[in-house]
Amino acid sequence: MTDELNNICLLTNDVETTSIVNGGLRPETGIKVWKEGMPRLLDLYAKYEVKTTFFFIADFARDCPEIVKMIQPYGHEVACHGLTHNHKQAFDIMSLEDQIRHLVEAKKILEDIAGEEVVSFRAPALRVNEFTPQALVETGFKIDSSVAPQRMDMFMSLGSRKKLVWLKAPRMPYFVSETNLARKGSLPLLEVPVSSFAVPYIGTFMRIAPSINAFTRYLLYHETKNTKKPINFLIHPNELIEEDDLKLKTEKRAGNVVSHLLSDVLRRKLKQKNLGLSARDLYEKEISFWNRKNYHFVTMKDLLKNNVYYPKNHL
User: Are 87 and 158 in contact (CB under 8 A)?
Assistant: First the structure.
């Protein structure tokens, strides 16, 4: 990858059974993700001949191993999104021992299905705590992508207080601190931040406010075009499905009224814009932009081969 150190674009996908319509975890949503969302994503990636990273929720993969196997012929990376997306078992409220237990089980499930080592991780809802760096290292992970530097919308998401550390997080890939994924340190774990410029560069904002997303992309492009900082775009295949015919009631996840109104009600209403084929068409514009600018589409694992980001003494 020596010639590809500049102009790197990672397209990263979080695969789960979360219903955007009501916020709950639904097997029916998982079936739609498998049958509709994933094929739409894979067709789009094949059209542009790009390689991406898929972060799978392990209990979903265990119940539907085909969803993991379907990406492998295309050369995409199998990565870990945790054992479950149940907000009551989020990493930011788990002890070190519980995190290690979750990670060991999730890693084994995914590696047994994929038949390959899984080294990249992203926490569900990007929720982590002071134990997560150690838990990841002890369970054999080499890359994390659970930090969004200077992202300002965290107040509308669960676990927002612990996400305040993002405000001072480095923007380039870095090795993490022993107790904080959002700070530099000496652990052999590479943090590859999700791209953001006040607002995150993710599928949700792409759908909610396409014009703001285009401006964010413009700023990120000018920040990265002459540096080794990679673009890291986050999307979910459940954004490429439609569930509006189900008339689902919003599930309450937050513990207080204010948080419920912000993260459960308001945020969910906004997130329902431009789902399904509209999301696919908007996403193709993002991929097309970076393709026209001659960015190199790589996986998280590819960064392990890049000894600028990941020196040999850390391997």
Answer: yes
66: left (phi over 0), alpha (psi -120 to 50) or beta: alpha
pLDDT of residue 246: 54
Secondary structure of 259-280 as H, E, C letters: HHHHHHHHHHHHHCCCCCHHHH
126, 90 contact by CB (below 8 A):
no
Question: What is the identity of the amino acid at 229?
Answer: K
Phi, psi dihedral angles at 228 (to 5 degrees): -95, 15
152: helix, strand or coil: coil
| Dihedral sign computed on CA atoms, order 20, 68, 105, 30 | positive
What local confidence, expressed as pLDDT, does residue 263 receive? Answer: 55
Domains of the chain: 2-310 (3.20.20.370)
Q: For residue 291, what are the CA distances in angstroms to 197, 237, 285?
A: 21, 21, 10
Q: How many CB atoms lie within 10 A of CB 168?
A: 10
Q: Which helix (H) or strand (E) holds 132?
A: helix 132-138
Q: Which residues of 250-270 are buried (b: 16+ CB within 10 A; e: fewer)?
A: ebebbeeeebeebbbeebbee
Amino acid at 106: A
- What are 243-254's pLDDT values in tens digits? 865 555 555 555
Q: What is the mean pLDDT of residues 167-186?
A: 96
185-222 burial, b at 16+ Cβ within 10 Å, e below that, comes to eebebbbbbbbbbebbbbbbbbbbbbeebeebbeebee
The continuous run of DSSP H or E covering 62 comes out as: helix 58-63
